[in-house]
Amino acid sequence: MYIVESTVSRSELQRLASQTFGELVKAVVDVEKELLVIDADLHADEEELLLEQGSRQEDLWGINLYPNKPEEEFIEFDSMINLRPSFGNSSRGVDDLQTRERIVQIVFSKVSR
Length: 113
What we know:
Elements: E1 2-3, E2 8-9, H1 10-19, E3 25-30, E4 35-38, H2 43-52, E5 60-65, E6 75-76, H3 97-110, E7 111-112
Parallel strand pairs: 2-7
Antiparallel strand pairs: 1-4, 3-4, 3-5, 5-6
């Protein structure tokens, strides 16, 4: 598990996926600090790392990355850490369209094609 400092390649994501879940890599995005953490068994572990680094709970969103899929299917918005009714998110997805768009922007700035 690590914070992507600059960028990570799709081939590296493919390698990481093959070592864990086969076709996906779990990730957490801090939409305020524009951080991306990848490569853990649980989104909660990545969330904890960012909280220890000073991130705020309401800025953290769990996603799955599918490095072998086309760009429109690359990001899956599905994580238990997203289920936060007190912050206005009542599903495992990301209900707010602007937040989803922000996540997409951050991910594609951190993942080289």
